[in-house]
Amino acid sequence: MACDLIIYNGIVLMVNDHFEIIKNGIICIQGDRIESAGHWDKNCPIPPAREYIDAEGGIVMPGLVNIHTHLPMTLFRGLADDLPLDVWLNKHIFPAEAAHINQDSVYASALLACAEMILSGTTTCCDGYFLENFVAEAVHRAGIRAVLGQGVIDFPAPGVPNPSDNLAYAENFVQKWKGKSELIQPSIFCHSPYTCSGETLKAAQSLAESLGVLFQIHVAETRWEADQMRSKYGFSPVGYLDHLGILDRHTLMVHGVWMDDRDIDIIAARGSGMAHNPESNMKLASGVAPIPACLKAGIPVGLGTDGCASNNNLDMFDEMDAAAKLHKTFACDPTIMNARTVVRMATLDGARAIGLDHLIGSIEPGKQADMIVLSADRPNRIPLFHPESYVVYAAGASDVRDAVIAGRIVMKNRKLTCLNLHEIYAGIAPLQTAIKQGLK
Ligand SMILES: [Zn+2]
After folding, report:
1. N or C: which end of the chain has fewer CB within 10 A?
2. pTM, whole model, 2 decimals?
3. In angstroms, what is the span from residue 395 Cα to ligand 1's centroid?
C-alpha cells in the first residue's frame, strides 16, 4: 500500500528513549500517523507515496511543543516592557484586556499566533486565555495541535463579566470542544492561587477531573506571591495547592520559580507536570526556576514561551537557547543543562507534562506525524557535529523549512499552506490602531 507522505534524505532526531539519531532517514506516514521510521539506503528505491518531502540533508525532528502560552496576547506584543510583574499586569495588561479583548480580537490575534508558531517549528501548544472558544476557532482553522484552557479568575473577565459564571462557562467550552477535533483538547486554566479563591480552585479542579481534561495554573511565579501565600495561609504556593488537594498527574503547574525542595518533592509525588518559561521569567525578573532539581526528581518539565506580552515572541528556538544558558549561568555549571535535555523538554517531556506523550513528542511508528524539517543550506548549520547542539545553540526559527501536523503539510519551503499572512495582518491592523489611540 502506498504511503500518503514520505520524508526522506534527512538526519532524523527521533527523540526516543535512547535519543537515537538516524544519519540518513526515511519516514513513511499513513494518514495522520507515522507508519515507519528508519535508515534509508540510497541504493534502494523510495517506496511509492502520494507526496514526498526531500529533506536534502536537513534535520528532521519532532515538532516543537510549547506548553505554556496565551495566544491572543500577540496583540499586546511590546505594549509594556521593562516593568515589574505587578505593575505590568495591573497597570497595563489587565486594563488593555478589559478595553480590547473581545471575540473578534481574540480570533484575529490567535490566528497571528498560529502563523508565528508554525513558521518557528511549533506544532503543538498548550494555551490558556479568556474567550477560549475563539482561540479554538483560530487553532482549528490553522490546523495546529493544541490543548486549550478556558481561563478562570475571581474578577470580571472578557466574556465572563460575572465571575460566578466562570465554571459554567468553562464547562460549556470543554463540552463544546471535547471530541470535536482530533487536534484540540479542551482544558481549564485557573489564573493563579492569588487571583482565585480556594473554593474556586477546588471547584475548577474537580470540574476538570470530572470532565477528564488537563487542569492548568500559574504558580509560584514571583517572590511577592510566595510571601503572600505564606503570610495569608501559612503555606508555600505549591504547599497551598497541595493542601487544597488539587495536585495530580492531570495538573500542569506553570512557572514554579519560588519553590524549595519540599515543594519539588510534593510535585514529584503527585505526578504533576511543570511548564518552564525562562524568557518570560527573565524579562519580568521573576527569578530562576529550580528546573535541574525538578528534572532530577522525575517531574515532567516542558518549555513554554508564555504570552507575547512577556517574551515577546512565540519562538521555541529562543526558549531552548535561553533554558540551556540560564541554568548554566545560575549554577555556574556548564554541565547542568545539556542540549539533549533541552531538546527533550521542547518535545517529548513537554508532551508528557500535558499528557500527550502517547501521541506526540518523538518520531516513532504509531505516533502522530507531527514533525519539522530544518534546512541544511544555512551558514549557521555548517559544519555539523552534533545535531542536538545545532538545534539548541545555533538554529533559529527561520531555519525551519517544512512543518507537518497529523500528516498534513502546514508549511512547505517556508510557505504556510493553510493560512494567509496578508489576511492575518489586515485583521490585526485596526486593533493595533485602536490600542495606539488608547495610549494617547
Ligand atoms: Zn502565563
Report:
1. C
2. 0.98
3. 25
